[in-house]
């Protein structure tokens, strides 16, 4: 299985996004060519360009919806396409941290850990292994080292036997899976930042579209359970305390995941 990981916003006190999101788009290796072809055809038919990059910060915004009918149609078609693509999406929605992490932190950040937990559970009972692919980030060397340390030097990492032992870094401009993860992460982030989970009719046309896209993505996730019976929600809101290592600023509590650990009354996915 190929697992494409991308994010929208950065978990940093000075980042403008208040609900940074990281997404894993999981697809069978045998389906990757089919998915790439579908995305390729969509771009060719609607934008007249086969090799443009679907980048959320360029097309999934109010300006695009007001001033660019072609790109708006492309975004609509992209999420319609996602309905029928053979993929599974996991998302970790974060609270923006109120303070910076120690610069010398070596452990894999928890939002990555939580994604890997879900991917590993998804593949239990199969012969598949997860190949993890990231966008070609400037901090790729640091992330790769943390990834390796987590898998080989921690008890939890060693227990995730369905994750291959080295991540790959790819060019988002030519990789359909990263573009899917990027678009999904942005839609999920905007949904949570605008608190569209409160229910009721949304009169803003742009936010109404974001809500529709989010509902499509909810259909592509799955809630899982550990062998001990602890839930692992497909879309999970991570509390701020999970950003900090033990004892900084305070030792995090040991808690099991629960859908109640969501933002301002959000209902769990299964109730949406």
Could you write a compact summary of the structure shown?
This protein is 39% helix and 14% strand.
Would you kindly provide a written description of the structure presented here, covering whatever features stand out?
The structure is a single chain. This protein is of the alpha/beta class and 272 residues long. It has one domain: 2-Layer Sandwich (Nucleotidyltransferase, domain 5), CATH 3.30.420. The strands form 2 sheets. It has a 6-stranded mixed β-sheet, sandwiched between helices. Strand 6 and strand 7 form a beta hairpin. Helix 1 runs antiparallel to helix 4 and helix 4 runs parallel beside helix 9. The longest helix has 18 residues. It is globular.
Query: What's the oligomerization state?
Result: single chain
Structural domains: how many: 1
In which range does the helix fraction lie?
25-40%
Q: What coarse outline follows from CA principal-axis ratios?
A: globular
CATH architecture classification name = 2-Layer Sandwich
Number of contiguous helices: 9
Which structural class fits the helix and strand makeup? alpha/beta
**Low-pLDDT sequence parts:** 250-272
Radius of gyration over alpha carbons?
18 Å
Quote the average pLDDT.
86
The total beta strand count reads 8
Taking strands numbered 1, 2, ... along the chain, how are they ordered across the largest sheet? 5-4-1-2-3-8
In terms of DSSP E residues, the strand content is: 5-15%
Q: Give me the strand/helix succession.
A: EEHHHHEHEHHEHHEEE
User: Roughly how many Å apart are the termini?
Assistant: 28 Å
Q: What is the CATH C level class, in words?
A: Alpha Beta
Largest sheet: 6 strands, mixed
CATH topology: Nucleotidyltransferase, domain 5
């Amino acid at each position: 299985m190929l697992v494409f990981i991308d994010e929208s916003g950065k978990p940093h006190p000075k980042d403008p996004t208040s609900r940074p999101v990281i997404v894993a788009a999981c697809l069978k290796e045998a389906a990757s060519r089919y998915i790439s072809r579908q995305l390729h055809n969509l771009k060719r038919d609607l934008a007249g360009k086969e090799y443009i990059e679907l980048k959320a910060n360029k097309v999934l915004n109010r300006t695009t919806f007001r001033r660019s009918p072609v790109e708006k149609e492309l975004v609509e078609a992209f999420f319609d396409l996602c309905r029928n693509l053979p993929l599974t999406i996991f998302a970790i929605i974060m609270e923006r941290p109120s303070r910076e992490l120690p610069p010398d932190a070596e452990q894999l950040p928890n939002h990555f850990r939580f994604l890997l937990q879900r991917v590993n559970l998804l593949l239990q009972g199969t012969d598949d292994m997860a190949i993890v692919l990231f966008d070609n980030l400037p901090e790729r060397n640091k992330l790769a080292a943390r990834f390796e340390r987590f898998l080989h030097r921690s008890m939890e990492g060693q227990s995730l036997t369905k994750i291959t032992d080295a991540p790959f870094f790819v060019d988002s401009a030519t990789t359909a899976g990263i573009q899917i993860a990027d678009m999904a992460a942005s839609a999920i982030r905007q949904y949570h930042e605008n608190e569209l989970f409160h229910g009721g009719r949304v009169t803003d046309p742009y936010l109404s579209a974001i809500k529709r896209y989010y509902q499509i993505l909810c259909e592509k996730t799955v809630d899982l359970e550990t062998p001990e019976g602890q839930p692992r929600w497909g879309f999970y809101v991570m509390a701020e305390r999970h950003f900090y290592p033990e004892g900084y600023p305070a030792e995090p509590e040991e808690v099991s995941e629960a859908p109640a650990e969501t933002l301002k009354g959000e209902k769990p996915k299964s109730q949406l």
